[in-house]
Write a structure and sequence with these properties.
Blueprint lengths: L1 E6 L5 H10 L3 E2 L7 E5 L3 E6 L4 H7 L4 E5 H7 L3 E6 L5 E8 L14 E4 L2 H10 L5 E4 L15 E6 L3 H5 L2 E10 L1 E6 L7 H17 L2 E9 L3 H7 L7 E4 L5 E9 L3 H10 L3 E7 L6
Parallel strand pairs: 1-4, 1-5, 8-9, 8-10
Antiparallel strand pairs: 2-3, 3-4, 5-12, 6-12, 7-10, 7-11, 13-15, 13-16, 14-15
The protein binds phosphoribosyl ATP and zinc ion (ZN).
Length: 283
């Protein structure tokens, strides 16, 4: 039986639960419990605070966990990052009061910087030979300059609206994060195949997100050009149509490139284009 640690509540909880559900793992809904039994896979779910997940996995209390790369880097525990999961994207940035005339990183020399990520910031300043005063603050970092607790902050930014609301401006983007699957380095031989199976399921789901399956009819002589436009998974599927000189072409396209590709395919003479959602992409 495998144990996976996920965030009990907070920004990563919903996406982590959705990933488990898409992977065919049904978890009893009660979030009040620390541990929940699941069906569809031999796994138990441990609900923890995100700060505690790296250590729980390092100690082997949980075999795997889902947590932000920011927490993994900050806690610096002995865990293996198995793969990024494509949600919970954010960055950790240095921000200063809006009216500061910011000239470059050397501005931070001798300044007080409030943060919940002192370890990542220390490394960054050391690398760039900046000597500043790092103040560890838990929560509400963004108000520190206004109450004169600090000259600047180092905090998570996503849309940037929290900075704007607090009259701050982002001046250096230091660390880029998203949720990741981590695994303990204390995995027993018996559990290793289970982790492999879980990773395989997650991988198929994460790879298929943002992808569309596109089918079209196209003149036979344009198939090569169309296929080059949409490289697909392995090579595109080409089926002959009953009408001579025509073929049916099936490709996989990134959602963000979909309309641009469709316009080009139409220029090549593609007709009857069908766009389907892709639930899983199993390699
Ligand atoms: O209770 P627990 O300790 O488990 O949760 P938490 O309060 O420490 O973390 P939580 O739930 O806020 O965030 C969990 C993880 O989500 C973080 O560690 C990041 O990996 C990721 N994440 C993604 C974010 C954000 N986006 C985010 N925007 N974490 C925090 N924020 C906060 C940030 O601290 C700031 O206050 O949102 C604000 C900035 O957002 P914008 O959109 O205004 O820029
Ligand atoms: Zn936390």
């Amino acid at each position: 039986m495998l144990k996976i640690a996920i965030q009990a509540k907070g920004r990563l909880n919903e996406d982590s639960m959705a990933l488990l559900a898409d992977a065919g793992i049904q978890v009893a809904p009660s979030k009040r419990k620390l541990v929940a039994q699941a069906s569809g896979f031999p796994i138990q779910v441990l609900y923890l605070r995100d700060d505690d997940i790296p250590q729980a996995v390092a100690m082997g209390v949980a075999d795997v966990g889902i947590v932000g790369l920011n927490e993994i880097a900050e806690k610096d525990e002995d865990v293996t990052v198995v793969r990024k999961l494509g949600f919970g994207a954010c960055r950790i940035s240095l921000a200063v009061p809006r009216d500061v005339d910011y000239t470059g990183l050397e501005w931070f020399n001798g300044k007080r910087v409030a943060t919940s990520y002192p370890h990542i910031l220390e490394e960054y300043f050391r690398e760039h030979q900046i000597v500043a005063d790092i103040h560890e603050v838990k929560g509400s970092v963004e108000i520190a300059p206004a109450v004169d607790l600090a000259d600047a902050i180092f905090d998570i930014v996503s849309s940037g609206s929290t900075l704007v609301q607090n009259s701050l401006k982002e001046v250096e983007q230091v660390f880029f994060s998203e949720a990741a699957l981590i695994a303990t380095n204390k995995l027993t031989l018996m559990k290793a195949p289970l982790v492999e199976k879980l990773v395989f399921r997650f991988e198929s789901i994460v790879n298929s997100r943002g992808m569309k399956y596109v089918l079209m009819n196209i003149p036979r002589e344009k198939v090569d050009e169309a296929a080059a436009l949409c490289p697909g998974m392995h090579s595109p599927t080409v089926l002959p149509l009953a009408e001579a000189g025509w073929a049916s072409l099936h490709v996989v396209v990134r959602e963000c490139e979909l309309w641009e590709k469709i316009e080009k395919l139409k220029e090549l003479g593609a007709e009857d284009i069908l766009v389907l959602s892709l639930e899983n992409m199993i390699k």
